[in-house]
What we know:
- The complex is a heterodimer of chains A (290) and B (206).
- With 290 residues, chain A is α/β, with parallel strands linked by helices.
- Chain A has helices at residues 2-5, 65-74, 96-104, 119-127, 137-141, 144-153, 187-197, 218-227, 241-249, 260-264, 269-278; strands at 38-46, 49-54, 57-64, 80-84, 110-113, 132-135, 158-166, 172-176, 181-186, 201-206, 232-235, 255-258.
- Chain A has a single domain (36-278), classed as Aldolase class I (TIM Barrel), CATH 3.20.20.70.
- Chain A is globular.
- The relative contact order of chain A is 0.14.
- Chain B has helices at residues 14-23, 51-60, 63-73, 83-86, 192-203, and strands at 3-7, 27-31, 42-45, 78-81, 91-92, 98-99, 106-110, 122-130, 144-150, 152-156, 162-166, 172-178, 181-184.
- The chains are: A alpha/beta (290), B alpha/beta (206).
- Chains A and B meet through α3, α4 and α6 of A and α1, β8, β9, β10 and α5 of B.
Amino acid sequence: MPDLIRHPGITQGGRRSLDIGFYWKDPKKKDLKLLKVRIIPTLLWKDSGLVKGVSFDSWRRVGTVLPAVKVYNMREVDELIVLDITATRENREPDYESVAEFSGDCFVPLTIGGGIRTIDHIKKLLRSGADKIAINSAAYDDPDLIARAAMHFGSQCVVASIDAGRMDDGNHYCYAHCGSARTGKEVVAWAKELEKLGAGEILITSVEKDGTMEGYDLDLIRKVSENVGIPVIASGGAGNYQHFHDALSIGKSSAVAAASMFHFTEQTPLGAKQFLQERGICVRNANMRQ
Amino acid sequence: MPTALIIDYGMGNLHSVRRAFEECGANVLISDDPKDIRKATHIVLPGVGSFHDGMESLFKSGWCEAIRTEAGNKGIPMIGICLGMQLLAEKGYEGGEIQGLGLIPGVVEKLIPSSSLIRLPHVGWNEIYHTKESPVLEEIPDGTDFYFVHSYHFIPSKQENAISMTPYCGEFVSAVMNGNVFGVQFHPEKSQKYGFQVIRNFLALN
């Protein structure tokens, strides 16, 4: 990209809009490789076991967390999300020792969630090797926690996680406590509020689609993506590579997260990248050998 | 064996940085005591957080002077990562106008989205392009992906201090250098093999 190199960004003036994120919209930009779409395996963790459920229920044990983290690290995935699904329910603090163990062998960006209620919890998690933290339930009781976290550690480290389900009126509403508590908050309004409070990213999970492998709730993903200016990670329902493509192109998300699909099928993050790259979406490492 | 001192000023993903430097062959010392800086062959200023809080903690704990003496005057190799890179500037505008360490001439400002499709923070894997040869980015091919997560960027006042740029929000300077002092906006500790290459390049400096 010689055109860019001529202007090494020294001046604020003369900016050009070259970075659209996806280049398939403009074939002329085909050789511009830009900010990559992220494929993010999500690991759900309960009593030190790796689990996966369907619609936030019927949890099934699928292994242990540490070996899974090691495998994903070796395969150089873009990022990992590890969520402790029982910490909030059991009114526990995050398990810092386990986090330190996971992160010791993880040289990819690591987001940790579950049970985070205070600034001190976040500080300890960052010290234990988390790069970003995900806050869900605590934000409903104490929205200011998001603001304090962003002020202290920077927005870039605060992922606001939203679990949402569709109600009879056609709107999506948010759930707290791992899908078990209705909050009455409409999802778009809540997402905008989280952005305003200082969240740096939104992880949006469909409670109904989660674990079904039937595809994301594209309506939900798109609604949230179109109404915030921060990156959105689509979650809940991915079962094949085309679902990723849908979440990115129709849902307009910046990243896609998946769990069941990687646990229960032969499909891999690398396979997903090759599929997406063939269809003109920017990914990284699509050609690496494993 | 190089001794990398990781400055603990309450602002970092310290464990990640430590593991990466250990993996690259350094003896790592994490310290919140500026006196320890004399034990270091290499200084690492990590950091996630705001410019304002970062400078305040560095100032309160006495690190500013120690860093200016060791890296600024004595020439010990130093690298700032993410917020740590930004703090090397003369001034920042995150949380008001604030004085930085002033080791590399320039200011830190918020990225300006170049279209409505651009999201901030800039999160994820993006490419770097060399604008000048530098020892820390040796053997890193043009177009290599590194992991970024930030909303502000370093604007050097002299072009010669920019060593790489990245295309986002138009484009921004993703690595800087001034003699023995280096800064990278991306996270080498989270950028896998090329990230490790940057760390090893840095540790090879005397």
